[in-house]
Design brief:
Layout lengths: L6 E9 L16 H13 L6 E2 L8 E11 L7 H8 L4 E9 L11 E9 L11 E2 L6 H11 L22 E9 L2 E8 L6 H13 L5 H10 L14 E7 L7
Helix pairs in contact: 3-4, 3-5
Length: 252
């Protein structure tokens, strides 16, 4: 008699982070991952512990994030329908992919993309999905600051303290601002990000856009490798994880 085969699955999830104390499981706190683990365990009637690709802070949203889990149990043909019926309205499981047993949601990710939303006129529908910033800004300077970021690879300045990472090197693939109606959106893609990095970049660039920091001073801030010179004070609700990229063919 042969034993059951353990299979590994990647799940593609989207969530509104407003009600959660971040993504990663924490003791005595409601998190996105803990809700997903509970829903999967309920549906499969066995304990399920997921591994996430990217941690997001309290209040941060994701249009796409991935997790993986292992199970010997067969999945119901209507797995997606059933799991979404269990999950709360602010979390949706969009797809599930069977992957090789050695595939890893975090370590196999080639890159991640984020967007940060600012809105210039009071809007009740953007309150928990953007940063109300009604100040005059030079968007040309913002764009130049975003381009400067691509010249660097060491982002020690934009990493919050008390982090356990071994390296502060990141390869920035895209960094630019777009203007949509009355919204201003920062778009950034990299192979990896440090804790608080996107919000630190946005907050510091906004100082450039408002004329409180010159472009040369912005260069100096990055080169200083001193996190006390960055501005992390932008709120979490404007930040969205929008994409996690994997090697072609992994997600069949």
């Amino acid at each position: 008699m042969t034993g059951a085969v353990t299979r590994r699955y990647f799940i593609d999830v989207s969530y509104k982070g407003t009600q959660y104390s971040g993504f990663q499981v924490q003791e005595n706190a409601l998190t996105v991952q803990s809700v997903l683990d509970k829903a999967l365990s309920t549906l499969l009637r066995a304990p399920v512990v997921t591994t996430g690709s990217s941690r997001t802070d309290a209040g941060v949203h994701a249009l796409q994030n991935f997790l993986h889990f292992d199970t010997e149990l067969p999945l119901h043909p209507q797995f997606l329908y059933k799991i979404n019926a269990i999950l709360p309205p602010d979390i949706v499981l969009k797809a599930i992919h069977e992957v090789p047993p050695e595939a890893h949601a975090r370590f196999d990710a080639l890159g991640r993309s984020y967007e940060y939303y600012l809105y210039k006129e009071k809007d009740p529908f953007m309150r928990d999905r953007g940063y109300f910033f009604p100040y005059t800004m030079d968007t040309g300077l913002l764009q130049e600051a975003a381009a400067i970021i691509k010249e660097y690879s060491d982002f020690t300045t934009f990493s919050k303290r008390n982090t356990q990472v071994r390296t502060f090197l990141c390869k920035i693939q895209e960094s630019y601002w777009t203007l949509h109606d009355k919204q201003l959106v920062y778009n950034v893609s990299a192979n990896r990000f440090l804790r608080g990095m996107v919000r630190g970049l946005v907050g510091t660039m906004l100082r450039v856009g408002r004329g409180k920091l010159t472009l040369q001073e912005f260069h100096d801030v990055i080169a200083s490798k001193d996190c006390t010179r960055a501005d992390f004070a932008v709120p979490p609700q404007g930040l969205f994880l929008v994409k996690v990229a994997y090697p072609e063919g992994l997600l069949k």
